[in-house]
Amino acid sequence: MGQSDQSSLGNDKRQWDSELEKSRANIAQSNFTKASGSQALRRMNKLQQLTNGVMVRELIKDKYGVDMDERRTSHKDVVERALKAGAPVPKNVLKDYPNLK
């Protein structure tokens, strides 16, 4: 094999390596873009859910005068509702609230 043949093979190999690196870079960028896109979509959906939740809370506050941030259901409220509904409430739970019957 002559020197020009070896030189040609060296050039072919360098060109092949260069194309291979470009392909790997494109694949890596494609995967990054897909991952970034799906992460961005998840973030946008979460933001939309949070925004909707705030809007619903504001609507309830405006329409009914109830501030959902201040209104928390306590365990006592749940026990009281269960008693009013006639649902069975364990005696050990009733011991915590002697004024409820």
Helix/strand layout:
Layout: H1 3-64, H2 75-85, H3 91-94
Output the keywords.
single chain; 101 residues; mainly alpha; 2 domains; 76% helix
Q: Could you explain how this protein is built, in words?
A:
With 101 residues, this protein is mostly helical. The chain is built from three helices and no strands.
Strand % is: under 5%
End-to-end separation in angstroms reads 103 Å
Largest sheet: none
Query: Any idea how many domains?
Result: 2
Query: What is the tally of beta strands?
Result: 0
Principal-axes geometry comes out as elongated
Low-pLDDT runs: none
What's the mean pLDDT score?
75
Number of helices: 3
Helix content: over 70%
Rg for CA atoms: 34 Å
Structural class: mainly alpha
